[in-house]
Design goal:
This protein has 109 residues and is of the alpha+beta class. Helices cover 31% and strands 34% of the residues.
Length: 109
């Protein structure tokens, strides 16, 4: 499953400041059973808006990690809170199946 949220960096701060906290927290979170990686991306045309994507084997494993309340993770999140606004976009299951159009040959093939 994917847990996706938007992060807006407040004026006077930089995405790099948040990225540093993101990496520190992610290194700890990714030790939890079921964690499958994280991504942090800048919005095109608006570098102060980021999208964060955390991948998990299941919602149950993600919820279990949150239930353990690691004080080190909590402190990292609290340290970044004054200079960001977070909007949860949602939790998304991995698709049961994917339909993709056939590959289009490149010119000259």
């Amino acid at each position: 499953m994917k847990y996706i949220f938007e992060v807006r960096i407040k004026e006077g701060h930089t995405p790099e400041e948040y990225a540093e906290a993101w990496v520190r927290a992610s290194e700890l979170i990714q030790r939890a059973p079921g964690a499958r990686g994280t991504e942090l991306r800048r919005k095109i045309g608006d570098p102060s808006t980021l999208i964060a994507i955390a991948s998990w084997n299941s919602k149950a494993e993600r919820d279990a990690m949150e239930g353990r309340h690691n004080p080190e993770i909590d402190e990292i999140i609290r340290s970044a809170a004054p200079f960001i606004e977070v909007r949860v976009i949602g939790e998304f299951e991995e698709p049961e199946w994917i339909v993709m159009p056939p590959a289009v040959p490149e010119c000259g093939e």
